[in-house]
Design a protein that fits this description.
TPR-like_helical_dom_sf; five-stranded antiparallel beta sheet; 21 helices; two-stranded antiparallel ribbon; single chain; elongated; alpha+beta
């Protein structure tokens, strides 16, 4: 097993494999040897011995003494740890390979090819780690990995080790405040040794920026990746079902509750001529839904405070501002959906309408929400029954008679429990909108079908009708509702008192 935690950066990776002779020095990839030594620690289960390599001559002078340690259990190289249950000690080939590679008189591939049969997988990993250390020839580390790849000796463990080394270099670049161009250059140059800058690699870099508090750096990094047109692991995902760098960064913003910034990020990239992956538009649409939902909850809470007198009522200007903010969010969501339609495949259309449906539900737009229900059905994606009920309640609260009638047609084919549930949503929609005549008709219809509305719903309808009697003097609906409730034994007999001012006459009726 091999793992890595901290590494030195590569400032520039300007190497060419075919044109560099073995005798040439690789200045672009060398770190000052005086900055950091290199330590090997050998563990035998009881004690630990440490040897420090400060120059190349150490290996030829000291490796014979190192061979004296037998039955070694593990080896620690600075912050790298590797172990192998099958071998008890390092072979002579390991030290000879390090010595030969340090001399730089021959190509690393020639040295490794010559000693191929003498080096175990563990020792090859240690060679890779050795040259990735601060103060060593990182160019050689890349050539070692390239040789391993060409020889088909890069297993999962070695690949993870190289990725960890690369992440260490990136982390050092970020810590030293290098520009995002240097980080992207590193990713591009890693392709030369077969370590493609795929989405998972780009995702790791974004996470490094984010975890180190360099959020603006993460945005600039993704922007540079898109500007250069660097392909990622999901580039073959033509239908847009998988994520990419823009979507991942937007998701990171969403995870911290910054939904608006996630939406603006994707839109800004698109409008500036870059090409975010299609899936990022869907993630941004999800952010729109979440922002609309949070905005609606905050608005309800504010209105509740206003009713209790804790804050003043919203004036006309405040109402206009809230409506404009909601309208802007919806416009962003529609714009994102249009981009998915343009760039994505038809298989995404159902998801698009599902997101639009959620947006309009959060915004309380009944007609638009109902339209998305039918659009989903047309593309073969059936919405959940609860969503139909929610849209039904919204349309009822807005007294959209035609939309309500269309949505009620599905009650003909649903079960009795579902029918009662849908009618309850309809009733509460009418109550919320203050449409108590329609609410009373719904209660009576439910009673005819053998469904008993909830007590609070019945009480709300009766109270609302009583207020309307005082305003308009219309008793008919109230009397019919009381009779229906009495017949169902939901209320006892009652007396209705009516005073006619013109004639100074009281009329009393037993129900």
């Amino acid at each position: 097993m091999a793992c890595a935690h901290g590494f030195a950066p590569i400032i520039k990776l300007g190497f060419v494999f075919s044109s560099v002779s073995p005798s040439q020095k690789r200045h672009a990839l060398m770190f000052p040897a005086s900055h950091c030594g290199f330590s090997l620690k050998f563990y035998d289960g009881v004690s630990a011995r440490s040897c420090t390599f400060q120059n190349r001559s150490f290996i030829s002078a000291k490796h014979s003494s190192i061979r004296g340690f037998r039955v070694l259990k593990s080896i620690e190289i600075d912050q790298f740890v590797t172990s192998d249950d099958e071998e008890d000690e390092m072979s002579d080939g390991f030290f000879e390979a390090i010595e030969e590679l340090e001399r730089m008189t021959r190509e690393p591939s020639d040295v490794l090819e010559e000693m191929n049969n003498r080096l175990s997988a563990k020792e090859l990993q240690l060679v890779l780690v050795y040259f990735s250390q601060d103060g060593r020839d990182s160019w050689c580390a890349l050539e070692v990995f390239d040789w391993l790849r060409k020889e088909n000796r890069v297993d999962k463990e070695t690949m993870e080790l190289m990725v960890a080394i690369m992440c260490g270099w990136v982390k050092k670049l970020i810590q030293e405040h290098h520009g995002v161009g240097d980080v992207v250059d590193l990713l591009v140059d890693m392709d030369c040794v077969g370590l493609r800058p795929g989405f998972s690699m780009i995702e790791k870099v974004i996470s490094l920026y984010w975890e180190m508090g360099e959020k603006e750096g993460a945005v600039s990094f993704v922007e540079e990746v898109l500007r250069r047109g660097i392909t990622h692991a999901n580039e073959e995902d033509k239908e847009g079902h998988k994520g990419g760098p823009t979507g991942y960064l937007a998701w990171k913003m969403m995870s911290e509750g910054d939904y608006r910034s996630a939406v603006r990020l994707v839109i800004r990239f698109r409008e500036s001529g870059l090409k975010p992956e299609v899936y990022s538009y869907l993630i941004a649409m999800t952010a729109v839904v979440k922002e609309l939902n949070e905005f609606a909850k905050a608005l309800r809470k504010l209105k509740g405070f206003a009713k209790t007198g804790l804050v003043t009522e919203l004036d006309l200007e405040d109402v206009e501002l809230t409506e404009q903010y909601q309208s802007d969010l919806l416009a962003d969501g529609v714009r994102l959906s249009n981009w998915v339609m343009q760039d994505g495949s038809p298989s995404l259309h159902g998801i698009i309408h599902e997101r639009l449906l959620a947006m309009y539900i959060c915004a309380g737009h009944g007609i638009e929400a109902e339209r998305q229900l039918w659009e989903m059905k047309l593309v073969g994606k059936e919405a959940d029954g609860d969503l139909y009920d929610i849209v039904l309640a919204i349309c009822a609260s807005q007294k959209e008679a035609n939309a309500t009638a269309r949505l009620l047609t599905r009650l003909e084919v649903v079960s009795s429990p579902q029918k009662k549930k849908s009618l309850s949503w309809l009733l509460r929609g009418y109550i919320k909108g203050g449409h108590f005549n329609e609410a009373a008709e719904t209660v009576m219809k439910m009673l005819e079908l053998g469904f008993y509305p909830e007590y609070l719903d019945r009480a709300a309808v009766l109270q609302g009708l009583r207020k309307r009697i005082h305003q308009y003097g219309n008793l008919d609906t109230y009397i019919r509702l009381c009779k229906s409730l009495s017949d169902a034994n939901l209320i006892g007999p009652c007396l209705v008192h009516l005073y006619i001012r013109k004639y100074k006459l009281w009329v009393v009726k037993m129900i």
